[in-house]
Design goal:
Elements: H1 5-14, H2 19-31, E1 49-50, E2 56-60, H3 68-71, H4 79-90, E3 111-115, H5 128-140, E4 160-162, E5 168-170, H6 177-180, H7 187-202
Parallel strand pairs: 2-3
Antiparallel strand pairs: 1-3, 4-5
């Protein structure tokens, strides 16, 4: 269906499979947030970003309304992105510790950033059917492993599980303010996830 990662990303940007999400993303882009009123919001589905040959994959839930939906790059322009790219830089996956726009010169090495949903959802809660509509993009990016519910690793922050094909999955709380401001996810916990990923890749 797709001839290259570029063709996957073009299809993502042009996607209109989820009318609710498209309408919400466009409305946010039109109304904007006061502190970003000078920005021209992206307001479209957000493609993945990074090294096409990456061994490390970061999968988020969905673009933030005033983060990736504004900038057009996953985990860019909000506090979650600051946590992510600082950690990626610290562990040698990113050329700089911040990500502010699509043209800021950031380069990822051996790392690719994607998401389960590609449009900003109301309340940060995509519906199951919307996630299902986005799943073919993860398949096309070569990242998705479809496992029966019983075969899926149980979520424990920082736990590493090996899938039948040898892929190692490291679970983590999302670096949202809801988690970082409450101490559910601390800088030490977050950093440990990336140390574990780096160690796994160097074996």
């Amino acid at each position: 269906m797709f001839s290259s990662l570029d063709s996957v990303n073009r299809a993502i940007v042009a996607c209109s499979r989820c009318p609710r999400l498209r309408a919400y993303s466009r409305r946010v882009a039109r109304e904007k947030k006061r502190e970003f009123r000078e920005w021209k919001y992206w307001g479209k589905p957000v493609p993945g970003f990074g090294d096409p040959e990456a061994r490390l994959l970061i999968i988020g839930l969905a673009p933030a309304a005033h983060g990736a939906n504004r900038t057009g790059r996953m985990f860019t322009g909000d506090s979650s992105g600051r946590w992510l790219y600082e950690a990626l830089h610290r562990h040698g996956f990113a050329s700089r510790p911040d990500s502010v726009s699509r043209d800021d010169g950031l380069v990822l090495t051996d790392c690719y950033v994607s998401a389960a949903a590609r449009c900003a959802p109301p309340g940060n809660k995509p519906r199951h059917v919307e996630l299902a509509r986005c799943r073919p993009y993860l398949v096309a990016e070569r990242w998705w492993h479809r496992l029966a519910p019983r075969a899926r690793p149980r979520f424990v922050h920082g736990a590493a599980s090996t899938l039948p094909d040898g892929t190692i999955v490291i679970a983590s709380y999302h670096p949202s303010r809801q988690n970082t401001n409450t101490g559910k996810l601390t800088p030490e916990m977050w950093d440990a996830v990336f140390r574990k990923a780096r160690t796994a890749l160097e074996r």
